[in-house]
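Chapter review: from sequence to fold.
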Amino acid sequence: MDTIPKPIPTRVIAIKNAQKSIEDGTMGSPYLSSNESIILSTNNVIVNTVPAEAILTNERLMLIDTRHAELRPQDIPFHAIETVTIGENSDQDPMLSLSLVTGPGVTQAMGIVFPQPPRMRRVAERDEWAARLKELSIVSTRKSGTTVMEILPPRVPGPLPDQAGGEAAPAPESEADAKFRNPPLVPRKPREPAGSKNRMAIIGVVVAVALIALAAGVYLFAPSLFGQGGAPLPPETASPTQTLTTAPTPVLTTAATPAITTAATTLVTTPPPAAAEVIIPQTGVWIRVKYEGSFSGSAGAPGRFTPITGTGDTVRQLSVKNEIVSAMIQKEDNTGRKLTVEIYDGGKMITSGTVNAPKGIVNINADLRTA
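The token string follows.
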């Protein structure tokens, strides 16, 4: 009697396809080690606006730029992942938010979006990635603790690998050094040719010399060009009438203007201190962000994150109650000014966090069930 074979799970099929794609070279260049195995993979994600492929192994998270196969993948070790949160972007696509430790007390945000084609939902796929990343990062942190990782800037001046010309190849790296490298997910910006800079400098010098010569010509030849109008000058002796008419006008105008301007300035500068006070309502859950510059981020419970953007002292209400609340707010500038984030429940501050580093991120969590 024939038996009907059981259907193979979709995740198993995806992993087998990814392994086959890696072997035949059609999916990135992950450089897997001998004891490394694939757990999850996907070939349609957006990492910080860059289309990429993602591969999760038992040792790291690999992100591969699909536009430039010649670039090595960006490796994210599990011990550098501080938090993993889920949410949605402005297009309602599922999104993962990773907080990566890049220095003592400094974290950097990374967003991984799962675009949804028509009639397709990827919420379950995002949730599975979030659960696996949390599990692996917790295990790695228990073994070695949270370790700082270096993420290279997205654009580094210099030619692409295939534009290096005839330069000698660098010495081969050992397997330990090359295991976790973090190249950017976007190609390097080519340097501006030196010839164009020199050409612009020469043009600037020529223009400056021409302007100087023109000014000298006007200075030397102006008397001869305008000297013909010297004959009609004597009739101007009747100018005392004009002098008498013009003189009183500036005196009256000048005397009145300072008094009005000074009074207006004094009145305008007094009100701002009164508007600086912010009162937190006594009901509901609220987040308060204080920063002299611009900031952006999100806050809320899993699946219901609210975008938080603005400048100065900002207060927003969160649609949560008796659950765990997370907030991740990042500075938009490179200054050392302090960014403060506070979460309130019923008018009482539950938790807060601050950061002074340039482009710094405040990542805090509050359990309202015990508040």
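Two observations follow directly from the output. The domain at 10-155 is CATH 2.30.29.30 (PH-domain like). The CA atoms of residues 169 and 215 lie 56 Å apart.
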